[in-house]
Design goal:
Helix content is about 35%, strand content about 25%. α1 crosses α10. With about 325 residues, it is of the alpha/beta class. β11 and β12 form a beta hairpin. The chain binds nicotinamide-adenine-dinucleotide. Nicotinamide-adenine-dinucleotide binds next to α1. The site of nicotinamide-adenine-dinucleotide has 24 residues, from α1.
């Protein structure tokens, strides 16, 4: 007997939801986006059309009351994550939520308690974990390809012209610390932060940081350099910015251990054992992390598996970021 498709709602129909719907389209044999919600009805209508005719809501509480759904994909501004997660968890809907988990450790505690009580599946939308080289690199690190790991570095930087032009409006809710929860580090900086934690596979011991605000358009940092000492001894570094691009020649991830180095970005990974001058190039096949993330979410829903990117990872990365920015 054919299995029933999982019924998905998307809440928050802005930029990133477009990519999520592309992901659901690739697994339409197992899931369908049946409802979308946005306070801006035009945004919701656009996404409803993209999804092939989903029902439009402008209030997620009404959606919960009226729609039979299995799961929600939350793509809202940061300050709304906590209330949406709690509402959907209480309604016993499984959850995929965009980063960050929420704004404070207090909110995180409330979320963890509610998810535990509701017994729904929660997946953190940490898409770069699904970038082809990342899980390959993790496998190699865990298999001892570079021996004992001493040092890890992750980066995600790009120049946002609007910030250099003083265009605060361009950043909409991201320009306000109350709705964004901070500056660049809790937004784009979230990616290299969870990558560092994932690759290190250890709790953090110490965090120090230097924050920069070069464009002075935001009231919080537009750039951050964060140092992390892990309990397993690894030294970690995160570089992230909206003021400047990735340093030329730098990589999304870089690991150095007792036997050599591995480094790379997206689909291209390099392995340089000690004593060699040229690294071996490993092309890792696979679709981009966003699409693979949605596919993994649907796999977990269908086969009741625990996601690779857990709620706890969402809590841990938030803690790192709040420590680095002196918030709590
Ligand atoms: N993983 C990534 O690479 C990535 C990239 C971009 C954004 N994101 C994350 O996705 C989330 C959304 O970001 P975005 O860039 O799509 O933002 P956006 O501003 O483009 O979209 C947010 C949408 O939420 C809607 N909204 C606001 N309040 C609402 C409410 N009360 N109820 C329903 N809808 C409401 C807005 O009208 C808007 O359409 C954020 O958490 C962000 O960090 C992740």
């Amino acid at each position: 007997m054919a299995r029933k498709k999982k019924r998905i709602a998307i809440v928050g129909c802005g930029g990133i939801s477009r990519v999520h719907i592309e992901g659901f389209d690739l697994v339409k044999d197992r899931a369908e986006v049946v409802a979308v919600c946005d306070v801006n009805a035009k945004n919701a209508e656009l996404r409803a059309e993209q999804a092939g005719g989903a029902i439009v809501y402008t209030d997620w509480k009404e959606l919960i009351a009226k729609e039979q759904i299995d799961a929600v994909d939350i793509c809202l501004p940061h300050h709304l994550h906590k209330s949406a997660i709690i509402d959907f968890a209480k309604a016993k809907k499984h959850i995929l939520c965009e980063k960050p988990l929420c704004l404070t450790m207090r909110e995180a505690k409330e979320i963890v308690a509610t998810i535990k009580k509701s017994r729904v599946m929660y997946m953190s939308a940490h898409n770069q974990i699904f970038d082809p080289i990342v899980r390959k690199a993790k496998e190699m690190l865990d298999a001892g390809a570079i021996g004992e790991v001493y040092y890890l570095r992750t980066q995600d930087c790009f120049r946002v012209e609007a910030l250099h032009q003083g265009d605060r409006d361009f950043m909409t809710w991201r320009a306000n610390v109350k709705t964004q929860g901070g500056g660049e580090l809790i937004d784009t900086g979230y990616h290299p932060s969870y990558l560092l934690l994932y690759l290190a596979g250890s709790p953090i011991k110490e965090v120090t940081s230097v924050l920069g605000n070069f464009t002075k358009t935001l009231s919080a940092e537009d750039s951050a350099s964060v140092n992390v000492k892990f309990k397993n001894g690894i030294i970690g570094q995160i570089l992230t910015s909206w003021a400047f691009p990735n340093p030329h020649g730098g990589h999304q991830i870089h690991a150095i251990g007792s036997l050599g180095q591995i480094f790379g970005s997206q689909n291209e990974l390099y392995h340089l054992p000690n004593g060699f001058e040229e690294p071996a190039h490993i092309h890792v096949e696979g679709q981009n992390g966003y699409l693979a993330e949605i596919e993994h979410f649907v796999d977990c829903l269908v086969s009741r598996k625990k996601p690779v990117t857990t709620l706890q990872q969402g809590v841990d990365v938030l803690e790192l970021i709040l420590k680095a920015t002196g918030r709590s």
